[in-house]
Design brief:
alpha+beta; 5-stranded mixed β-sheet; two-stranded antiparallel ribbon; single chain
Length: 253
């Protein structure tokens, strides 16, 4: 395939950015999207030009490092797929592809397609720890966990923290990410002692980082490569309301 890439180029956080067009000929449909960018970067390097900066690591849809908006959609046109798992057979010969970084106040651009996702680390850090009693290992069946709770906890724990939810949300909210990190512990026995302080701390860190508020539009779930459901945000809201009510004192108590 012969493609034209329009890529956001920005030298640094304080520099103006622009879309730059690059022709990329002879693209194999079996290439992954990142392999196609590797081919472009190899050519740019041989021509003495600055290669396109983009995040990547495992290239197996596990680490959450890769992140870019492809033709207006976070991670591209395929559902439940990260950019590194996206293959060029999903594009047409002669197509023009726009590639941009995540766009959010809390994700400032570092260079080209690379953004600073430190705000996610701050939310995680605000979650604190879980209480782990010292001593011998407990009996395996001492604490029963309902199958529905275990399944929902695993579903939320699958979040890889890529940031697609933030890029897709018109409010720039990270509530789906925060909900996933909060609720997978709130559904398990290990997470109960710090359940209230955890949800309040993480939501406060979310707001302090500059993420927008959630208005339940649902774009976050549409682009999430791991299929984190919108019900996770509902669980987060219930836990947050209960925690703040208990902290501040409910009327009549």
């Amino acid at each position: 395939m012969n493609l034209t890439l329009r890529i956001w180029r920005q030298s640094g956080p304080d520099d103006p950015g622009r879309m730059v067009s690059y022709p990329v000929p002879d693209v194999s449909p079996d290439m992954s999207f990142l392999e196609m960018l590797d081919v472009l970067n190899e050519r740019l390097t041989l021509d003495g030009e600055e290669p396109v900066a983009f995040d990547h690591d495992c290239r197996e849809g596990i680490c959450g490092a890769c992140g870019m908006v492809i033709n207006g959609v976070a991670h591209g046109p395929e559902r439940a797929t990260t950019a590194c798992q996206l293959h060029m057979r999903h594009f047409a010969d002669g197509q023009t592809i726009d590639i941009e970084p995540w766009r959010a106040k809390a994700f400032p651009v570092v260079k080209d397609l690379v953004v600073d996702r430190t705000a996610f680390d701050q939310i995680i850090a605000a979650g604190g720890y879980i209480t782990a009693p010292a001593g011998s290992a407990p009996e395996a069946h001492a604490q029963l966990v309902r199958k529905s709770d275990a399944d929902a906890a695993f579903e939320s724990a699958a979040c890889i923290g890529c940031g697609a939810c933030v890029a897709a949300c018109p409010n720039g909210s990270a509530m789906l990410f925060t909900a996933a990190k909060v609720t997978h512990l709130s559904l398990l026995p290990q997470g109960q002692p710090e359940r209230s302080t955890r949800v309040v701390g993480m939501v406060d860190a979310h707001d302090a980082a500059g993420f927008g508020g959630c208005t339940n539009i649902g774009e976050c779930t549409a682009v999430c490569p791991k299929g984190i459901p919108l019900t996770s945000i509902g669980r987060l809201n219930r836990d947050y309301l209960k925690a703040t009510r208990d902290r501040d004192g409910a009327p009549g108590t």
